[in-house]
């Protein structure tokens, strides 16, 4: 469904007619304000100069006075000439652009006389808005508390007008939104209206809500209603309506009455009489209506400036220039903006206010209050009282230290507690049993601690000496707390005891921590003892199963050397193992393995797999089948033991080594003085997967060849990849084998692992 245009002229004719109406309206409104012919003529001249020179009324008045003085003409005659000047006169020096908002200089603006707002609204609707199709207009002005007061309306029923007489600052409506952010609202059609917001009148057509500003000061809001939608608010139309809102604001004559002009001196006088240290500032906004600063309008004679400046140094300056550190995030400037936006006052006690004094930043604790006043703020502060500050520090110290003070008068028996003492005892001030005297303390103390409390009282009252004790307090909420009491006697000039005073301190947290620490020490000592026992058992078991030296296997044409190098640290005893044994078939079983982990669990796992492999080898099965069975043992018959292994069977008759691998490092073949790793057959580590399969491979050996089987402890280094470590071993092993035992020692001597892991090595040499 298309939108309908307003009745009346459209396009350029419409703009031209509206411009003419605005000019005539301005003249009529100026005439209404005049009470005498001369004053009316002067005011009209000021209005003409304001429009043509694009300046504030104060600047136009000064310009008119200056021209009269220079020309020698009476002010009234010059005003008549100015009003009679044709367009394009030399006085017209402004551009065609709308004037930019300047910060309000309240003292410079002439004090206009108030005009009936309803007459202004009626004339505005009849002469300017009705030809555009508008049916109603409402004018509100800002009150000191941020509320909006309806000062004029036209087109509304009496009932509707009465409902919109006063809009509190917390009321969410278009007019308050415009006043809070200074931005106009344009709604060409009903679907653009914010549905949750209450709207003036029954119309759901186009609507414009505009700020009423004069010389940069935001004075209120103006709402215009259309019964039908508009296609759009064209830029020219928006400019004309904003200009009309500015003329209405200037004509209402409220600026001088609501700010610090000569007619409004009663308000700063009232503030000075009520508040010794007060500062009043109005908001400075940019062209988009955002608050960018506050300009100081008034400072009371007793105002306390943290930097030591007086009222003459502050009035007329911007708040950010006077106190730039207030603009830091979450500083007083942000709080002032929130106060103006929401209407909710801000207050803070003992707030550190940072100011620049000379070349230093000084922090002063201030009690701060900020409230909204028209389109600005009233700020009052005073230095936080030093005694109050010390009291606050003492209260925090009592809370942090779980301390509570008390004093008992000996003559009257009166007892006084600090606030935190009530907290320690979980008693409310004013309760019948609170505060508790030292004599009445027995009813709140554990029976086993009564003697200690009685001795504490005896030292204080009878021996008149300072005393201290510890007791368990049976608190009102059923909890038992460990309390430490300190006290001293108070005597008069004659040495007579007149009072006792002291503190209670809740040591429960410390006491429970000490108890828990003692229990932890005992548990740790027991755990260390059991760990040492297990470690000794693991070392003994490992040395019994895998001795550090072993006799070589004796078989024709076959030399073997085995080496075992334990970890440097006993607590890292691991599960590395090896075996070399001649089977009944005449084959030689050669195997090395490494169980994951350290300690008794790794050693028992090593014993299980080593002995199981020996027994399984008696079946005559090949290496791949032996590893499949050994994987079943690791998976099903151990407690989550995993590990790697190389299993080989050497046949002296054929000189063939059949071998399989379960995730282990490959053997190294030494031939003719050169060394290299054998290609790895497939096979994952033992105990990981019950369905693992292992591949078997055969390596034909020649006389003079050497085979090295080893665990990773021989080569592993922190920060180095295993491939690099293997390459290093190949370089060390690449030499002719003359004496196998010396050759094995040479390998151990020239490999330098740094992981403190066990090392197993089997070196084989074929003659």
UniProtKB/TrEMBL annotation:
Keywords for the protein's UniProt record, in alphabetical order: Coiled coil, Hydrolase, Transcription, Transcription regulation
One Pfam family cited in the UniProt record for this chain: PAS_3
Disordered: region residues: 92-112
Residue ranges of domain ANTAR in the record: 22-83
Domain PAC: 467-519
Gene3D superfamilies: 2.10.70.100, 3.30.450.40, PAS domain, PPM-type phosphatase domain, Winged helix-like DNA-binding domain superfamily/Winged helix DNA-binding domain
PROSITE patterns named among the record's database cross-references: ANTAR, PAC
Coiled-coil region list: 517-544
Annotated InterPro entries: ANTAR, Bact_Sigma-Reg, GAF-like_dom_sf, PAS-assoc_C, PAS-like_dom_sf, PAS_fold_3, PPM-type-like_dom_sf, PPM-type_phosphatase-like_dom
SUPFAM superfamilies: GAF domain-like, PP2C-like, PYP-like sensor domain (PAS domain)
Protein name, UniProt field: Diguanylate cyclase
Taxonomic lineage of the native organism: Bacteria, Bacillati, Actinomycetota, Actinomycetes, Frankiales
